[in-house]
Amino acid sequence: MHLSGQRLSSAWRRCDSKSRARMESVHRGDMYFVNIPQELASDGVECYEHMHVVVSRDEVNSLGRIAIVVPLTSPLNKAGAPKNTGVFRDSRIKIPEDQKIWDVDAPHRQSGDSLAKTEQMFCISQVDLTREKRCGTITETAMNSLESGLCFVLNLPPVSRVAAMLAAGPGKALRPPVNLQKDKK
Predict the structure, then answer these.
(1) CA–CA separation, 150 vs 93, rounded Å?
(2) pTM of the prediction?
């Protein structure tokens, strides 16, 4: 069935208003236990049931359709070796147990330290995200660490560098200009 732009837009609004009525508010730093079907996961991507942290801005979350999440996993593999070494040293961020604040009535808890796999961030429908009750949140310190992993994965300057550049005033480049016209000799 093909819907025109206007009819499709009104269908989205109806769907969205029904979804919002059932949905709880999603906030940056919230932890949810999410079941990702294996058929949606590729090799090495966390699937099945895992804790996820919302990393999208609250302004984006307030739109009520999607949220960007990062999966949490245990810091050690089945053989007991750390999962955050080698190429994953800068993208897998340790979230210590004392940096997780569990809701009193949390339906799921992952005790102990966790590893945020920032290289596996993805968008999820807030309807799907909130099928399970929120489990808790991470502290601001943990979110700052997680942001450093996101900056690495997305090749963005560290948050502290951006803040320094903004404080320096307008007209300051974050990176030196790139000369796109190489000498053609």
Answers:
(1) 9
(2) 0.71
Give residue 25's pLDDT: 84
Per-residue model confidence (pLDDT) at position 11: 37
Average pLDDT over residues 60-64: 86
51, 72 contact by CB (below 8 A):
yes
Domain assignment of residue 38, yes or no: yes
Could you tell me which residues are beta bridge partners of residue 70?
A: 53
Give domain status of residue 176, yes or no.
Answer: no
- At position 146, the amino acid (one-letter code) is L
Q: How far apart are CA 87 and CA 92, in angstroms?
A: 9
**Inside any domain, residue 95:** yes
How many structural domains compose the chain? 1
Dihedral sign from CA coordinates of 163, 150, 91, 146: positive
* Cβ pair 68, 123 in contact under 8 A: yes
CATH classification of the domain holding 85: 2.30.30.110
Residue 139 within a domain: yes
